[in-house]
Structure formats: structure tokens, C-alpha cells
């Protein structure tokens, strides 16, 4: 199964967080389950993504929620099109607002799993709820408003 970011048009694939064409970036990859209507991004932080030794830097966690949310929004908008989910291109979203709750320190080492759900969707805007788990423990919750990129923004 290909990931959402795989289907972004080339001009929108350079994001530091999730751009497949940015070799310096995190290259987050988000998978969309069309039946469950749920998204999933897995990422293993590097040892240098440290806040205090042993724990993940919060900015990285916010980035994960950010890009995971734009990808989830993209998949949710793709559902409105007549083409199948596994055929690109996908609509591209930007984040209008991002809330992150750090519920517990996130241990550095385990692969993080972000799970996203569509809370609200219109033709242009998607509200995405995300939970991030480390070793099965919920450590971060996020909520993002993502908006289909306006006409004429590259791509
Ligand atoms: C060219 C390359 C592009 C590549 C994209 C890569 C993106 C990678 C992911 C990111 O890192 S995003 C980076 C951080 N985000 C930004 O830089 C976005 C900056 N903000 C904007 O450009 C505009 O504010 C934005 C496009 C998000 C919205 O402006 P619009 O004038 O198009 O929005 P509009 O006022 O029409 O509102 C559309 C809907 O969004 C809602 N909305 C807009 N801003 C909001 C906000 N801040 N909070 C909550 N809701 C918001 C607004 O209420 C409305 O909801 P409804 O349709 O239900 O009425």
C-alpha cells in the first residue's frame, strides 16, 4: 500500500516533515485505511531528537502531528473525488491551526505510532484528531484544522 505523501504533486513534496523529495527531512509516511477511515504514521526518532536524555523533543512530536494531520486531511478530501484512493494526485492541505497536548514524556527509542481520525470535513477544511503512542502508551494528543491549499500556490 502506498502512503498519502507518495501521491502529492511534485511541487508539494518538499516539506521538511513529510516531503518525499526532501532528503534532509523526516519523510513521514502516512497510511490511510479507507475502511476504518483512520490514518497511521510510524516514525522512529533518532538519538539526536532529544529533549532531555531518554525523551523525545516536543517540537518533533508537534511536527509529527502536523504532517500526519495534513496527510489525513488530504485523504479525507480525496474521498470526495471520483477517482479511487490508490490513484493520485491527492489534494494538498496546509495547517491552519495546530493544538498539541503533551500528556506524558515520550520515551526516545520506541517507534512512535500516530493514529488520526477525521472529526469534521467540508469541501475545503478538515479537522483531524490524532493520538501518538510510544510502546502502546498514549503520550500526545493533537487536533489540527487543515485547509486545502489555495489555488495558485505552486504544485
Ligand atoms: C507552495 C507549497 C505549498 C506546500 C505545502 C506544504 C505544507 C506542509 C504542511 C505545513 O507545514 S503547513 C505550514 C504552516 N501553515 C501555513 O503556513 C499556513 C498559513 N496560513 C494560510 O496560508 C491561510 O491562513 C490558510 C490557507 C490556512 C487559510 O486561509 P484562507 O483565507 O484560505 O482561509 P479561509 O478564511 O477561507 O478559511 C477556510 C476555513 O478554514 C478555517 N480556518 C482558517 N484559518 C483558521 C485557523 N487559524 N484556525 C481555525 N480555522 C481556521 C476557516 O474558519 C474556514 O472554515 P469554514 O470553511 O468552516 O468557514
Automatic annotation (TrEMBL):
Keywords: Apoptosis, Cell membrane, Cell projection, Cytoplasm, Fatty acid metabolism, Hydrolase, Lipid metabolism, Membrane, Transit peptide
Catalytic activity from the UniProt record: dodecanoyl-CoA + H2O = dodecanoate + CoA + H(+); (5Z,8Z,11Z,14Z)-eicosatetraenoyl-CoA + H2O = (5Z,8Z,11Z,14Z)-eicosatetraenoate + CoA + H(+); (9Z)-octadecenoyl-CoA + H2O = (9Z)-octadecenoate + CoA + H(+); decanoyl-CoA + H2O = decanoate + CoA + H(+)
Gene Ontology cellular-component terms listed: cytoplasm; membrane
Xref: SUPFAM superfamilies: Thioesterase/thiol ester dehydrase-isomerase
Protein location: Cell projection, Ruffle membrane; Cytoplasm; Membrane
Molecular function as annotated in GO: hydrolase activity
Record-annotated Thioesterase domain positions: 54-137
Predominant subcellular localization, coarse grouping: membrane
Top EC group: hydrolase
Protein family according to the UniProt entry: Belongs to the THEM4/THEM5 thioesterase family.
EC number: 3.1.2.2
Membrane disposition: Peripheral membrane protein
Protein name: Acyl-coenzyme A thioesterase THEM4
One Pfam family linked to the record: 4HBT
Any single GO BP term: fatty acid metabolic process
InterPro entries linked: HotDog_dom_sf, THEM4/THEM5_acyl-CoA_thioest, Thioestr_dom
Amino acid at each position: 500500500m502506498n502512503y498519502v505523501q507518495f501521491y502529492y504533486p511534485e511541487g508539494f513534496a518538499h516539506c521538511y516533515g513529510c516531503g518525499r523529495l526532501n532528503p534532509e527531512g523526516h519523510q513521514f509516511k502516512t497510511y490511510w485505511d479507507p475502511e476504518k477511515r483512520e490514518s497511521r504514521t510510524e516514525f522512529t526518532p533518532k538519538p539526536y531528537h532529544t529533549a532531555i536524555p531518554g525523551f523525545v523533543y516536543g517540537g518533533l512530536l508537534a511536527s509529527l502531528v502536523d504532517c500526519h494531520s495534513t496527510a489525513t486531511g488530504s485523504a479525507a478530501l480525496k474521498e470526495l473525488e471520483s477517482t479511487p484512493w490508490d490513484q493520485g494526485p491527492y489534494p494538498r492541505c496546509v495547517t491552519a491551526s495546530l493544538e498539541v497536548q503533551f500528556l506524558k514524556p515520550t520515551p526516545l527509542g520506541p517507534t512512535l505510532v500516530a493514529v488520526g481520525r477525521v472529526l469534521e470535513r467540508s469541501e475545503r477544511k478538515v479537522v483531524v484528531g490524532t493520538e501518538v503512542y510510544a510502546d502502546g502508551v498514549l503520550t500526545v494528543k493533537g487536533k489540527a484544522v487543515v485547509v486545502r491549499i489555495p489555488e495558485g500556490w505552486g504544485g
